[in-house]
Structure formats: C-alpha cells, structure tokens
Write a structure and sequence with these properties.
204 residues; alpha+beta; Ribosomal Protein L9, domain 1; Ribosomal Protein L9, domain 2; 4-stranded mixed β-sheet; 3-stranded antiparallel β-sheet; 5 helices; elongated
C-alpha cells in the first residue's frame, strides 16, 4: 500500500514522501495515528495545499521537544523491584512503568514514546530511548534495584551490584561509621580529661 507520510518516520521516510508499506502496518498504525494518509490524488492535493502549515507545525513541535530534551537527556530514574540472587527480576519493567516514573520526575511522556525492544528482566542500569518527536530522541537510564541503597551502589559502580558486593559495601559503611563514632568518643574523653586537669590545677 502507498501512503503519504505526514511526519518523519524513522527507517521509512520524511514528511511528504510517498512510501510503500504493508497494509497491516498502514491500517493498524500509520493511518489511525494520523502519521500518514493513503496516497490518493485527493489526499496528495490536500497535502500540498496544507504542506506549509504542516511543516510550520512540525517545526514548532520539534523546537518544543528539543527544549524538553535538553532537560530530560541523561535523566536517571530508579525502579525498585524484587529479584533473585542472580539479578533476575521476579516480574519485569515495561514501557508503562518507565513512562510513569519519568512523568513523576516532572516530564509528560506516554508509554508509546518509550522505545523498548523488549521488557527489562534484570537488575542494573539500562539505557532507554525516549522519542519526544519524530526527529528528537534522548536517552535516559533506568536503574532497577531491590532497594534504594542498592540503586545508589549500582549508580556509583555503573553496573549491577551482586548481593555479596552489596553486603560488603554495607559492612564497610558500618565499619566506617563505627570508626568515626569511636574517634568522636575518644576526642570527647580526651577533652573531659583536659577539663579535669585544668580544674585540679585551679583548685591547687
């Protein structure tokens, strides 16, 4: 089936191009989403009549998308999920989950704008493409972890952190905290001894 593209479609063509597509793709996606029209004489004439307005609208929408993209690009969102020792999720993370979290961060995106070739099924840091406009895409990072602490450890390491590594990090943090506390207590004890010596000298 031949259609006129009303916007740029990646790997297919630019606005105004007449391309051949499978009938199912046209009927189920391009036509209902108003991304294309059948390439009839009437539609071609109508497109040419409104081409300038369509191009102007596209330019404005792209400009808005670029502004949002500057703020959204590089965003990291955290999703807490249950997983096994190997890092395999008991469930999965899909486009709807990611869109909801991105929206919670202050950006309005729909799940159709989240480009996932397959759902996420493991812990770790996952780069995900967000299409803000046919000509504007940005990449965000989805940090999938079992807890906020694990998410922080993964962000620092730049990869999935195994349970043993997580425990070692927690033990090291506890040891560091205990050492700092012991140091404070020693300094306070030393200060008290100093005060006691000063009082003894004053009394004598």
């Amino acid at each position: 089936m031949q259609v006129i593209l009303l916007e740029r479609i990646e790997k297919l063509g630019q606005m105004g191009e007449i391309v051949s597509v499978k009938p199912g793709f046209a009927r189920n996606y391009l036509l209902p989403q108003r991304k294309a029209r059948r390439a009839t004489k009437e539609n071609l004439a109508l497109f040419e009549q409104h081409r300038a307005q369509l191009e102007a609208d596209n330019l404005e929408q792209r400009s808005e998308a670029e502004k949002v993209g500057e703020k959204l690009d590089g965003l990291t969102i955290t999703l807490i999920r249950q997983a096994g020792e190997s890092g395999q999720l008991y469930g999965s993370v899909n486009a709807r989950d990611i869109a909801a979290e991105v929206s919670a961060a202050g950006f309005t995106v729909g799940r159709s704008q989240i480009e996932l070739t397959t759902v996420i099924k493991t812990l770790g840091l996952h780069p995900v493409t967000v299409r803000l406009h046919p000509e504007v895409t940005v990449t965000i990072t989805v940090n999938v972890a079992r807890s906020e602490a694990e998410a922080e450890a993964q962000a620092e390491a730049g990869r999935m952190v195994s349970p043993s590594e997580q425990r070692a990090a927690e033990e090291a943090a506890e040891a560091e905290a205990e050492e700092a506390l012991a140091k404070i207590e020693a300094e306070e004890a030393e200060a008290e001894v100093g005060d006691s010596d000063e009082k003894t000298e004053a009394a004598s």
